[in-house]
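Input sequence (183 aa), recorded before submission:
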Amino acid sequence: IDGTGTDVIYNVGVRIRGSGSRQRAVPNFRVGIPSDRAWQGVSAVNLNTQYPHSQMAGMNIFELAGLAFEEPTAVQVRVNGENRAVEQNVQFGSYGRMEVVGSEWVNNHYPKDADGNFYRGSSTLSYLGEDQNNYIDNGGGGFGNNTFNKQTNSGDRGINAAGQTQTTSATRPPSTQSGLTAT
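Predicted structure, token format:
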């Protein structure tokens, strides 16, 4: 239900998501939609419950700054007929529906370069040497390990762009580090 009508999609998957928020009274959800029946052009959405108003504000600031962002929408969610995002808690009565970052996100935000590589960084921007392998997640999850995890084109191991961004940002003086981008 989106104000213009109701869409019914069968065979969706719903799971609790978020390593840091799984134990919350009201957990975050990931809704997986069959790719042959994508909803509004996407096959997955995240439903976040922790401070959705802050996420909305942050994404709007990214948009004003001209940066790519996860498109947010405040939504009402019912689990067995109950809105668990109570107003007295950090949800303020709503969930935040966030665009899932991945290949669909790249296609949506970079339509002229839909085959480009997208990396999710887990880094303190520490310089780890010239060897680009120091910046690859080798199966340990990468969080807190100064790595850039490739989110698209997983068959292609090319990491030049992420390794170069890491090297550049870690070696340039702080006054010249603004506006770094990865391709």
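Checked by second reader. The chain is about 15% helix and 15% strand.
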